[in-house]
Design a protein that fits this description.
The chain has about 325 residues and is mostly helical. The protein contains 17 helices and two strands. The protein has helices spanning about 5, 10-25, 30-40, 50-60, 70-95, 105-110, 110-130, 135-155, 165-190, 195-225, 225-230, 235-240, 245-250, 255-265, 270-280, 285-300, 310-325, and strands at about 100, 100-105.
Length: about 325
């Protein structure tokens, strides 16, 4: 299923998020900042996290008359701004030139602007959250943002570590990626004053969705193509970051020394191509797909206690969207 179809039940809300994003990036009186903001608006991605905020909130109250609150739109917008800010900083750390088929902010304006812009977006995001006046939501999203930063630090510190354990990989993924997905779902539940059991279920859905999403992203970074990804593949390889696909390849034991030798040749495109082909020809390919399937199933099971609705089906469909990207859904 295409994202456009999944988003249909919440297309009006996503339009309002888009409008608030534009409004938020046009508050400055300085032309230079406005110009960067305009460029940034043209590079935004799939809005998965705002979708999760909205779908989670509406799935809980699916059989009650609903008027979308301004608070819901502000929270969804804030979470998207936090995500975009983290990507801008990631592109500095990874020296990435492309993002969503366009030159990254880092490539176009350099590190100084990228770092300052990311900080600026964080400040706008937390201003929107504070406007909602809900300390539980503020605590939820602040905690997730702290986890993201900690996960990024851990990932950088573990670079060039051939002995990285899978447990460490999953810790990094939970903090760096899954935490914000989890907070997106939990914040949507908190907003409608849902009990902690349902909050926990949606948080767990987001956490497992986020883990599956990151494994999928790491998989595509190894075997994908620029025209499909919108960015140059092999970023993890070039930065010396061992991801689950490579860890699965190493775990097989076959040609381990050769694989380790390739990993050390971070600036050698031929080494990356050989590593990619070794992965494709191995059982590690299927194992990585199985890992994604496992977390997708866990995400779906987290929703068992929610009443059926188009919004709950939207949450299911988003997990299938992740599976479809690497062709594993049955």
């Amino acid at each position: 299923m295409q994202l456009k179809e999944i988003h249909r039940p919440i297309e009006q809300e996503l339009l309002e998020v888009e409008q608030l994003l534009r409004q938020s990036l046009k508050t400055s009186r300085h032309k230079s900042i406005l110009g960067i903001g305009d460029y940034l608006l043209g590079t935004l991605g799939k809005k998965l996290r705002p979708s999760l905020v909205i779908l989670s909130s509406k799935a809980i109250l699916s059989h009650q008359p609903q008027a979308t609150s301004h608070q819901l739109i502000k929270i969804a917008t804030a979470i998207e701004l936090i995500h975009v800010a983290s990507l801008i900083h990631d592109d500095v750390i990874d020296s990435a030139d492309l993002r969503h088929h366009k030159p990254s902010i880092n490539a176009k304006w350099g590190q100084d602007v990228s770092i300052a812009l990311g900080d600026y977006l964080y400040s706008i995001a937390f201003e929107l959250i504070s406007d909602c006046g809900n300390s539980d939501i503020l605590r939820c999203i602040s905690s997730a943002t702290k986890s993201m930063c900690e996960g990024e630090l851990l990932q950088v510190c573990e670079r060039d570590n051939p002995d990285l354990l899978k447990e460490r990989y999953f810790l990094i993924v939970k903090k760096k990626t899954a935490a914000l997905f989890a907070a997106s779902c939990q914040a949507g539940a908190i907003l409608v004053n849902q009990n902690r059991i349902i909050q926990g279920a949606l948080k767990n859905y987001g956490l497992n969705f986020g883990i599956a999403f990151q494994i999928m992203d790491d998989y595509l970074d190894l075997i994908g193509e620029t025209e499909d990804l919108g960015k140059t593949p092999g970023a993890d390889f070039r930065m010396g970051e061992l991801t689950l696909p490579v860890l699965n390849l190493l775990a097989q034991g076959k040609d381990r020394n050769r694989i380790l030798s390739l990993i050390r040749e971070q600036n050698n495109p031929e080494a990356f191509r050989e590593l990619r082909q070794s992965f494709i020809n191995s059982e590690a390919d299927l194992k990585t797909k199985d890992d994604v399937s496992h977390y997708i199933q866990k995400a779906k099971e987290s929703l068992n206690n929610l009443e059926n609705s188009s919004f709950k089906q939207g949450l299911f469909a988003l997990t299938d969207y992740v599976a479809d990207r690497i062709d594993i859904r049955e």
